[in-house]
Fold this protein.
Amino acid sequence: MSLTDIPQAVGEEEKTEQPEEDIEEIMLADTHPTTDADDEPMPDEASDEVQKSEDNIYVNKFFDTISAFGGYICGVLAVAIIKPVGLLAVFGKFLWKHTVLFRDALVRMFSALFKFIASPFLRTRRTLKISRAEIKKAEADHDRKTAFRIKRAIIKDALFGKHGLLVTVFNYAAPIIAVAFLFNIVNYVNSTSYAIKLSVNGKMMGYIESEQVYSDAERITNERITYAGGSAADMKFSPQYSLEMLGDQQYISKFQLANMMLEMSDANIEYALGMYIDGKFYGAISDNEPIDAEIQRILKSYSNNSKDEEIAIEQDITYEPGLFLAESIVPTEEIIKLLNSEKQQATYYTVQEGDSPSLISDKLDIPISTLEEYNPEITEEDYVMRAGKKLLLEQSVPFLSISVARTVEYEVNVPYDTENVTDDEHYEGVFTTLQEGEDGTNKVTARVYYVNGVETRRTIIKTETVKEPVSEIISEGTLPPQSSHYSDESVQYDKKYIWPVQGGTLWEWGYWDGGYAGHTGVDIGGAYGADVYAGASGVVTYAGWDSGGYGNMVMIEHEDGYTTLYGHNSEIYVSVGQYVYQGQCIAAVGQTGRAYGNHCHFEVRYGNDRLNPRYYLNGL
C-alpha cells in the first residue's frame, strides 16, 4: 500500500465509526486526500465543520416545526369554516322542508303578478303574430293596399287600442302619478306656515306665533314701567293683527317685542338685565356676576359635606337682557339684600313614624304652643298622630327656598313579638313569662329631603339587620280554675276566720307567741298547690306580686273593717274588686317571695295595726 492510500484507509475507517450527521464532513475529507500521512486536518478546522453540521440540523428542525404548526392552524381553520357551513346547510334544509306552503304561495303570487303586468304585452305580441301572417299573405298576392291597411291598423291598435301599449302604460302610471301629485300637495300645505303680522300704534313690529305673545310683552312692559314708579297708563299701545303666509321671516319673542314697544316711548331707557324670580320681575341690573356669587355662597351655607348631597334653589331665577327704564335699574347690593331676607310663609311638616308633638317641637326648634296654635286638633284627647299627616307651620322662611337632599344612615329599634304558649301545669288566668323580649336593631339608609331646613319627605334606600329581636314568650295556664272550690271548715267558739289551708299544719307562730322577731303572722305549711281559702267573706283589695317579700299575695277587706292577708302563694285565682265568700278558694300554696318551704303566711290587720292571729283564726 502506497503513502497516498493511507489517508483513504484512515478516512474509510473513520467513516464507519462516525454517526450519520458526520457523513457530509467525511465525504468532504475524501474529495481532498492528502499526499502526506503527517498532513492531517487541524483541530480547529474539524470543530468548525462539526459546528456547521449542527447548525444545519437545528435549522431543519425549526422549519419542520413551523411546517407542523402551519398544518395544525390550517386544520383548525378548516374545522372552523366547515362546521358553520354545515350548520347553515342543515338550517337551510330545515327551512326548505318546512316552508313548502309559503314558497308555493309566493310562487303563485309572483306568477299572478307577472301575468297581470305581462298580459297586455303578450296580447299585443299575439296580435302582431297574427297580423304578420296576413301581411305576408297580402304581399304574396301583391295586394299592397291591403298590406298597408293591415300595418296601419296594427300600429294604431297596438298603441292606442283598448289594450294598446300606450293605454296600458297610462292606466298603470296614472294612479301612481295622481298619488305622487296628491302627496306633494299635502306636503306643500303642511310645510306652509302662517303667522300673525303685528303692528303697534300703526308701526309694523314683526311676526308673532299668537296674540298671547303681545299680551305677555305688554305685561312685561308694564312691569318695567310700574317698578320704576311710573304708570302703565303713561304709555298707550294699540295692536293690529293680520294673518299672512310666513316665508323666511322669523317670529319675534315677547321680550324682543317688549324692547321694541319701550323704544317707541320717549322715556329714558338703557340696556340691562331683567331679573325674574319664578316669572316675577324684581328689577333690572347691570351685572349679574355678584348676584350669582352670592347665590353660590347661600347654597354653600346649607352644605354639611354629607354623602351624595344635593343642594338647589326651589325658585327659577332667570336674567333677560333687554331695554329697561333707567329708573328700574337697581343697585346690586339691593338685590343681594333681598336674597338674604326672610318672608312669612305657611309651610308644612310631614309626620314621621314615632313622632309626637314634643318631638316635632324639638326637631323644628319651635315652641310646642306654636305647633298647637296652628294645629289645634293635636290637643284633643282622642287625636292619633299618624305617619304621613301634614302639620301646618307658620314661620319665617328665607326669601330663597333652598332644597337639600342627603343620604343618611341611622339605627331604629325593631319591636319584639310576643308568643303565647299553653301550660297545663298552671291554672287558667295564670300567665308566666318564660322568656323576656328584647328589641332588635336595624341600620337604615335613607334619602332625606329638606326645604329651608324642614324635612319634607324621606325615601328608604335599604335596611340592614344589626340585631335580631328576641320574642317574648308567655305561657298561659290551662288547668280549670279552683276559685269555685269551698272549704268544709267552720268557725268554732268566738273566732272570726276559718282555717285557710286544707290539711295545713302550723309551722311558725307570730312574734307574740315566740315566733322570730318581726314575724307578724303565722305560717301554715301545706303541699305545693294546695287550696288556700278566704277566712271570711269580703272584697279583694290586693291580688298580685308584692316586692316586700310576700311574693304572690292576696288581701281581703271584710265587712267589719278587718283585713286578712295570704302570702307566698304559687297561684292567685281572684282579682282586685272581686267579692269572695268565706271558704272560697282564692289561691294555691307556694313559696314565692322570701319563703322557705311551701306554706301560707296568714295575717290579720285592722287599719295599720297587725293583730295576733291566734285570737282570730279558728284552730289556734
User: Anything to note?
Assistant: The first strand starts at residue 193 and ends at 200. Residues 361 and 368 are 5 Å apart (CA to CA).
